[in-house]
Amino acid sequence: MLPAIEHTCVSVPKRPGAAVGRAFTAMPRNGRRSLRLLGFLLCIVLVGACSSNPQRPGEPALSSTELSEFLTLAREAQVEGDSARALFYYQEILTQRPRHAEALSESGLLLLQMGDLMQARPLLQQAQAQRPNDARLREALAVTDFRLGEHEQTRIVFEQLIANREAGWQSHNALGVMADLEGDYQAARGHYQQALALRPNNPVVLNNLGYSRLMARDFSAAERHFREGLRQSPNHSRMRINWGLTLAWQGRYADAMNAMQPPLDASAAANNVGYIALLKNERGIAMRYFEQAAAQSPRFYPRAEQNRLRALNISGGDGS
């Protein structure tokens, strides 16, 4: 699965951003080669450098049997959802067979899933050079470039994939994020709906669609999409915060506080709710939430106090 392009959550819904990759822990399974594999863990974070060396000094090349064994272990790890272990075995192959097509493509996809864009990109480029007609690799490389800020270049790729009926849900999702960045919320909604047609109930797309409707001030639709997404992924931190912001925009401040805790602590939630109230010109409510945020957390005090003073200045000093 490709990594998600996902809207960030902020105190005020302004523009979307990119998703953050997951962190994994490697755990080799094969006891017969455990010492050799554990030693390789020291260089797994230097994927680019390790994969460029065809063979480590003093070590015999992988035999066909060993290659087959490592491929089997890598594929099994992927099926089990253990991305770090899968990456470990693919990288072991690349240390001695640096042009191995499957190891290149799967290593690049796994690193992209983990959020390591700079390490993923050259591996995906090498893999695509060997498999220029592989739509999955084209989409993955475009997702990488999009997350690195190359929006216009990747737009062309995503649109070509869609025109050729080779696009996955990520192409539609990315075009939806681009449309949101341009303020075209109607177009964004269409792209997200196409993404959901390919991947029904995907929480990432539901979060993006909800955030798009939030920016369009269609609060009831935004809340509906966030609720749908949270049924699929109850611990989705960004979506919970976005849901809370949506409730605050509807004046349901107590519900908003509950929705955002966790992942936010009470101080951060109160500051966010207060800021939405301030934007709605409900200055008295905003003041109370800023004061609550400052009182609950000395660490949070400077930011909440700054917002409180802003509300006080706007209100002319009476806090009403």
Automatic annotation (TrEMBL):
Which Pfam families does the annotation name?
A: TPR_19
Outline the TPR repeats, range by range: 101-134, 169-202, 203-236
Q: Which UniProt keywords apply?
A: Repeat, TPR repeat
Give the domain of life: Bacteria
InterPro entries tied to this protein: O-mannosyl-transferase_TMTC (IPR052346), TPR-like_helical_dom_sf (IPR011990), TPR_rpt (IPR019734)
Where does the record place a coiled coil? Answer: none
Protein name, please? Flp pilus assembly protein TadD, contains TPR repeats
| Organism in which the protein naturally occurs | Ectothiorhodosinus mongolicus
